[in-house]
């Protein structure tokens, strides 16, 4: 059952005073999502929020510490689009980095009705403009196990023996899904290419991670990358499809 946190907003100050979430100038601006409760849903209500520079958001709370317990609560929120855009710009790992959430009673209120740590899990954007349309977050209290899609980054390309010989790095997976304690979520998974020669590959279960993380894959021996002797030549059919 969706729950709303909206209470009566505190009386607005002078007409020219900006909302608290737009006044923040400290470093916490990039680490704390500022939001207010939202009462209405649907396309028209969402479009109205966006016209006013806001992003409809949902905060999910799990029924228990394990992800299989399902969703217990959905809090309807709205966040400031400019602040979210700045946070996304500052953090390339926004969807794998827990952040603070602060919910105020209203846009011009200083009264905090909810605060805690959350993990952003989905950001929907307009394909034409790139504007943020929706944000989905999950409560990330300590001890909660969360399924997280972690980006894969490859390091050591400049010293990789196979690449120095003219080989080609075939990136098979750009992300991997792990079950992580909320307090141990890494922003990314690093794959070290330093000692790989032509013909070598890195499997999912080859990647060292914190012991509290569990890889969620039906086949943990699938390769994440390979060092090929040369770049694969596209077939004529594929080239025609791209032309």
Automatic annotation (TrEMBL):
The keyword Nucleotide-binding does not apply. SUPFAM superfamilies: Ribosomal protein L25-like. One of its GO terms (cellular component) is cytosolic large ribosomal subunit. Pfam families: Ribosomal_L25p (PF01386), Ribosomal_TL5_C (PF14693). GO terms for molecular function: 5S rRNA binding; structural constituent of ribosome. Residues 33-134 form the Large ribosomal subunit protein bL25 L25 domain. One of its GO terms (biological process) is translation. Keywords: Ribonucleoprotein, Ribosomal protein. Residues 146-230 form the Large ribosomal subunit protein bL25 beta domain. PANTHER family: RIBOSOMAL PROTEIN L25/GLN-TRNA SYNTHETASE, ANTI-CODON-BINDING DOMAIN-CONTAINING PROTEIN (PTHR33284), RIBOSOMAL PROTEIN L25_GLN-TRNA SYNTHETASE, ANTI-CODON-BINDING DOMAIN-CONTAINING PROTEIN (PTHR33284:SF2). This is Ribosomal protein L25 beta domain-containing protein. It comes from Digitaria exilis.
């Amino acid at each position: 059952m969706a729950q709303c946190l909206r209470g009566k907003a505190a009386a607005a100050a002078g007409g020219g005073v900006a909302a608290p979430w737009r006044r923040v100038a400290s470093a916490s601006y990039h680490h704390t999502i500022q939001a207010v409760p939202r009462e209405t849903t649907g396309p028209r209500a969402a479009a109205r929020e966006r016209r006013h520079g806001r992003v409809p958001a949902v905060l999910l709370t799990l029924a228990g510490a394990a992800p299989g317990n399902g969703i217990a609560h959905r809090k309807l929120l709205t966040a400031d689009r400019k602040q979210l855009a700045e946070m996304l710009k500052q953090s390339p790992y926004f969807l794998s980095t827990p952040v603070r959430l602060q919910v105020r009673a209203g846009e011009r209120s200083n009264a905090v009705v909810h605060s805690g740590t959350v993990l952003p899990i989905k950001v929907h954007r307009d394909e034409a403009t790139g504007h943020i349309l929706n944000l989905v977050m999950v409560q990330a209290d300590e001890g909660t196990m969360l399924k997280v899609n972690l980006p894969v980054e490859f390091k050591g390309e400049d010293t990789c023996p196979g690449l120095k010989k003219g080989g080609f790095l075939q990136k098979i997976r750009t992300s991997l899904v792990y079950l992580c304690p909320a307090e141990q979520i890494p922003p990314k998974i690093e794959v070290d290419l330093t000692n790989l020669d032509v013909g070598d590959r890195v499997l999912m279960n080859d990647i060292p991670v914190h012991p509290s993380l569990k890889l969620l894959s039906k086949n943990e021996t699938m390769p994440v990358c390979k060092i090929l002797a040369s770049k694969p030549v596209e077939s004529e059919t594929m080239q025609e499809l791209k032309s």
